[in-house]
Design brief:
It contains ten helices and 15 strands. The protein is α+β, with helices and mostly antiparallel strands. The N and C termini lie far apart (44 Å).
Length: 325
């Protein structure tokens, strides 16, 4: 087996076609995601495992550099491919050791056996990639998609329509950020800088921003940032005004996002993250689960993210710093 970590332009074209056709192919291992991560200042490495010239496994690694030149390596929704993934991880781990990596994270869409690593593999405890999601079938008619929602979901969409809430595609990330800041303050979570939202919309191919407006107003009351990749539509960021909560704009936004992705040729719409069925009450995805479940969809579950800690003491200090600062 040959492992390539500096693919040529021809390799990248071949990889793009291979990934789009692969049943495990996903946005988070795509060349589009690679470009987006680079646009927000992160380094990426794409590893390809080949046998007789054909790709059999792959891993897009996103590298986040911390202080003193240390880093964390992350393989979101990967590695992808056959059992050659184990050999691929061994190569990545060897490179990570030589590059001042604190921890290697990976979150494949399917479990696979890994043996004989020098460092223990354990659950990371992070939830950046959700362990469950609800995915809506966009091959159905609009009437069928609506009928598959819970009655409360359909009702809330109708409330927004009765109040003449309108949804428009936009490029106004400043307006969206204002809504995000309000939502974050209300719900108590940290948000990335404005540049990340701008890069998502401007540098991630297939991305879109929808804003919802009340009748006769130019001030948005809710926003949705999503992306389509291949046949998949994905909801990524959302925000809303608490003062206008009775207008139910977030439900109408989701419905219009589904229609937008369906019109683009997508066959599914991923609500990106709900708490798994056995989740404890404090699970970080618990708060959005009830909202998303009203929109219908099929439950999809994933293995928990795994980690291999290469520098235990330095990694513990970094986690402590992130917790308090």
């Amino acid at each position: 087996m040959e492992i390539v970590s500096d693919p040529s332009a021809e390799d990248l074209r071949y990889y793009d076609a291979w990934l789009r056709a692969h049943p495990q192919g996903t946005l988070w291992q795509s060349l589009e995601w690679k470009e987006y991560q680079q646009s927000i200042g992160r380094t990426t490495r794409l590893y390809l495992a080949r046998e007789k010239g054909a790709i059999v496994a792959s891993a897009l690694v996103v590298i986040d550099t911390t202080t003193l030149g240390l880093s964390t390596w992350n393989i979101p929704r990967g590695p992808i491919g056959s059992e050659a993934r184990t050999g691929l991880l061994e190569r990545i781990l060897a490179d990570a050791k030589c590059s001042h990596c604190l921890t290697l994270y990976f979150s494949p869409s399917q479990s696979f056996f890994i043996a004989n690593f020098s460092f223990p593999i354990r659950s990371s405890g992070r939830h950046e990639q959700p362990e469950a999601s609800s995915v809506i079938d966009l091959t159905k008619s609009e009437e069928e998609i609506l009928s598959a929602m819970k009655p409360k979901g359909r009702y809330n969409i109708s409330i927004a329509k009765r109040h003449n809430v309108s949804v428009r595609q936009s490029s106004d990330t400043s307006a969206f950020l204002a809504l995000v800041k309000e939502t974050a303050k209300r719900d108590g979570f940290k948000i990335p800088p404005k540049s990340h939202y701008q890069a998502f919309l401007e540098c991630l191919r297939g991305s879109f921003l929808l804003l919802a407006y009340p009748a006769e107003s130019q001030e948005p009351i809710s926003g949705l940032l999503g992306v389509s990749w291949g046949s998949q539509g994905i909801y990524y960021y959302g925000a809303s005004s608490h003062a206008s909560r009775a207008l139910m704009a977030p439900y109408l936004l989701q419905w219009e996002a589904m229609r937008h992705c369906k019109a683009r040729g997508c066959t599914s719409y991923d609500l990106f993250g709900i708490a798994p069925p056995d989740a404890l009450p404090h699970h970080p995805w618990k708060g959005v689960t009830e909202f998303k479940e009203k929109l219908g969809g099929t439950l999809i579950t994933y293995p928990p993210e795994r980690e291999i800690v290469l520098r235990p003491i330095a990694n513990a200090l970094l986690q402590l710093k992130r917790k308090f600062f």
